[in-house]
Amino acid sequence: MSEELNMPQMGYDMKEGVVVKWLKDVGSSIKIGDPVAEIETDKAVVEFESYAEGTLQEILVEEGTKVNVGDAIAIVGDGSLINSDNTTPPVTSNDIEEDSNEEISIASSDVVIEEIIPPDSNSDGSKIKVSPLARKLANDNNIDLNSVSGTGPGGRIVKVDILNLIEIDSETLSSSEENKIKIDTNIPSIDEVPTVLQEFNEGNKMRSQIARVTQRSKQEVPHYYLSTDINMDKALEIRAQINTKLAEQNIKISINDLIIRATVETLKKYPIFNSRYENNNVIINDEINISIAIALNEGLIMPSIINCNDKDIKDISLSTKDLVNRTKNGKLTSAEYTKGTFSISNLGMFDVNSFLAIILPPQTSMLAVGSVKKTPVVTKDDSIIISNIMNASLSADHRVTDGAAGALFIAELKNNLENPVNLII
Amino acid sequence: MDKQLAKKYLLGMLKIRQFEEACGRMYMQGKIKGFLHLYIGEEAIAVGSISELSEDDYIITHYRDHGHALARGMDPNKIMAELYGRVDGSSRGKAGSMHLFDSNLHFMGGHAIVGGHLPIAVGIALGLKKQNKNGLVVAFFGDGAVNEGEFHESMNLAALWKLPIIFYLENNQYGMGTHVKRSSANPDMLYKFADLYGMPSTKIDGMDVLTVRDSTREAIDKIRKNNGPILIEAMTYRFRGHSMADPSAYRENEEVQKWQKEKDPIELFKQYCISNDLLNESDFKSVDDEVKEIIQECLNFAENSPLPDMSVAKDKIYNIN
Amino acid sequence: MTEMNLRDALSKGLREALDTNENVFLMGEDIGIYGGPYAVTKGLFEDYGSEKIIDTPISESGFVGAGIGSSMVGMKPIIEIMTINFSLLAIDQIVNHAAKMHYMSDGQLSVPIIIRTVTGAGGRLAATHSQSFEGWYASVPGLIVVAPSNPSDALGLLRASINDNNPIIFAEHSMLYGVTGDVPDQYYETPIGLPKIIEEGNDLTIIAWSGMIPVAQEVSSKLKDKKLQTEIVDLRTLNPIDFELIFNSVKKTNKVVILDEYWETGSFGAYICSVIQENCFDYLDAPIAVVNSLNIPMPYSADLEDEVIPNTKRVLMKIDELLGL
Lengths: 425, 321, 325
Fold this sequence. Notes:
Chain B is of the alpha/beta class. Chain B has 13 helices and eight strands. The model of chain B has no long low-confidence stretch (mean pLDDT 96).
């Protein structure tokens, strides 16, 4: 029977030692306690006294070799080597747990249960779980947390859930004073991207936001609609005059600019349409920020021209062009995303006669305008002339206003556009 | 002993006495806050011992530290301003009564943890020795401190390393309200602790300024010769409470009065001066006048010093040099 | 660059200090003739003699106080307290005296001492010899606490400590002495108070120091399997701390795990957590996870000790539970 001599532990923090010198030769007889080798630790050179008895049968490491504590350095004995595998280590409670398949299967089924807990338990009246960062992002982007499904632990709404709903350009945000949150858009290389971020990259985000917003609007907001035809002859005439005058400044007023300008004047007269509906309250906004629908390849976006109250037609025109440019370059400020008070959607360029728009909550109304078309018109004296006619439709929130109010609004709008001199003086 | 020296001792003790009496008054008027421990009754030890020290020597003491600071020559104005918590105080109002410092005078602080300054005294002596400097260290402490481990660790280290220290035990017989007989197993032999550390020691009458002076001088000579520590146990008595908050329920008025009547160090010294024709009543009067002026001046100084602002509070937490 | 272990880096720093500053001396229990309980001072007694390398009695309060006193008159003592557990016997000197002297004397006196001491668990030394009190000391104004995790920081911080004029607790982790790493051959110092990002990542920030750094690194490598990039901040200094670097990391990753070998209750890691949530609340995308030693006096038996100290398995579970990663 033979026994291994192992690198001894000579201090609790010792991990390895060097066999400096063998003090016995192979074949010499060894008693327990005999020094067999000099071992160098981090701190000292120490004589290693044998804990086995017999003949030194084999030296396993040369002098100068570094050996991990517990590894064999020599064999002592007179017979066969004791197979250390035969020794049974004491069984601990941990071992039992790890060896039991039953325990493991129970444990993993626990994990599954944990994962299928409904992520958002606000249906039972409990508070929505949301991370501070996600809450701030949602707030800044007018996203109702009730409509977001959280994918974090326990269904918590986390950053990525909000990012899936909005597109935010990190440069725009970091340059905006109103929003100091910088979203990290350093997307790791493709093979490192977590699944959720891949979806984010595929451009579904804007679509899903439109889906969410329009669905919610249609479900929650009781729309009513009023339509009228507006004679744009004078508007076109005055536009031509203005453009002649502004040609040297290289400014060109569009029909849409006139519509915005007319709408602002109308809203000043009927401010209830420049309101927001929040928590069962109607709040009339002081600022008139006109959101205009801009079609991008990825979908529709509704940024707003901030503070139109005192903008003249030229200002409106410049602001609109600037807004469209920056929208296409992805350079909007977060206020422009979120602070709109009244929306105008114009599909005139697509040869659409008329259409009805879906209100963009928390706004309470929206104007939809079609193409300006040469149309035969019966005049007051029953003759027929050809005029430039444009259809405009108001969508309004019935919780806030009734049809009669809407009629006044749209009549005033019509009046403003048909007597456009009011819009420039 | 000549007339001039006698006057110096008397002035030294009287300055402490009247300074402390003024502190007591100002404390009761709310000018001084916190803990205030008066040295009244123990003046002979500070004056008798510190008058023997040279500029090279160092002093470190406990929280009843006004007497030692004044005896070392610390500016009474700075001390009183510190007690008032004013910006012209020795630590700009951040340390208060128990923690007076004047590094220029090698006055290394009053320290408020009983026995805690004794290892530091050892260190100062060690530093002096390592730099081959001449000075020695006098560490004052009370009878309460001898039951702290730090006292014994310090005694052993000082003796082991043969450091120049006088361990100056001011045995006023009470650790706060606990008489030494109730706190020490061998209360009459505290100085004998030194024997265990192979350190010379002596027990003296701490109410007699000349005895204190002579014993200190002898100890200094020994230390300069042998370069090892010495313990002096000076028996004394504080005439006032432990601090201003002391209800004095632990000792009889008769005991206090007996000490005041028979052992007042200032009265004893005056008698000595008269019987040895050193000073007369008119000398006493002129010393008294001089001291009164000093005290009035430091009270005025403190009263007129501004309060520190928060920038002072936030300063000198770390040495940023 | 020279590869060396942390013990040798410290030894190099001590020799440098002894060679270049005549006021430097070392003292502590068995640092001289014995060669140092952790062999950091091995060979110094032979080379520098008993005036510079002082073997002290087992009087922690006494010799720490002696170090303080000597520093007040111009010396630069490097005091070794064999383990941080024994520093409790000197806590009056450290907290009441070393930390306060400069302040209470209003700058008249300074206490430029270094107290080298061994912190942490992992050596099967049981409850009284396995504690991590560096966070305690870091809570005391007036003290500086450093706790390096690798050889180059150990040498750099030791040099900075020697050139500093404040009382410094220099916490060395018992299980890190053998850790090897490259140490620059040219003279450098590691600034006190500056944490270091030792691994960069975007998905979560792990803040750790001293003996918890290897755990952080192992966790990071496990998270790589899940395609997660971990940012590891090694505090290196516990007081003072430049929090800007930490805040910036949190703002980048939005998720934070703090590893602290101290117990759960009242831990320094919990303090770091509170500073982060006050300053970065709107940047947090998950609760801040603090992983501590369990609230149990350290048991001796190996398996039990491994469970009590924060380990990779437990940290990963906590990350899964709180961060959802």
